[in-house]
Amino acid sequence: MDTELQIVTREKLVADMRIVLADTEQLLKAAIGQSGEKLAALQPRIEENLRNARARLAEFERAATEQARAAAQATDAYAHEHPWKVAGFTALLGVAVGLLIGRR
């Protein structure tokens, strides 16, 4: 998934969640005021916003899962193509972590 598309999707998800929260706030205020008309008028809008937010969240989760799967496949392919580089890097990382732990 393209980085720009991720940012747009993330921003859209945040915007949808803000709308849901704002509508929920209005619903609570209407419930406190015990105005049946306001409550009835807000309910369809809140339900719509909740559906949209859930759909966006599901889309975001799907995209994140797809991206993680692609990264794992690329890492696996690289490790199979360059096993000695991976082993060397892993050994170097182990030595660095060992040195850091030894300093304590």
Structure description:
The protein has 104 residues and is mainly α. It has one domain (3-103). The chain has 3 helices and no strands. The chain has helices at 3-32, 36-81, 83-103. Helix 1 (3-32) packs antiparallel against helix 2 (36-81) and helix 2 (36-81) crosses helix 3 (83-103). The longest helix has 46 residues, at 36-81. It is elongated, with a radius of gyration of 24 Å. The relative contact order is 0.09.
Short recap of the structure:
The protein is mainly α and 104 residues long. It has one domain (3-103).
List keywords for this structure.
3 helices, mainly alpha, 104 residues, single chain
Mean pLDDT, to the nearest integer, reads 79
Order of helices and strands: HHH
Number of helices: 3
Q: Give the termini distance in whole angstroms.
A: 41 Å
The helix/strand class is mainly alpha
Strand content: under 5%
pLDDT below 50 for ≥5 consecutive residues: which ranges? none
Q: Count structural domains.
A: 1
Portion of residues within helices:
over 70%
Describe the sheet with the most strands: none
Quick one: how many beta strands? 0
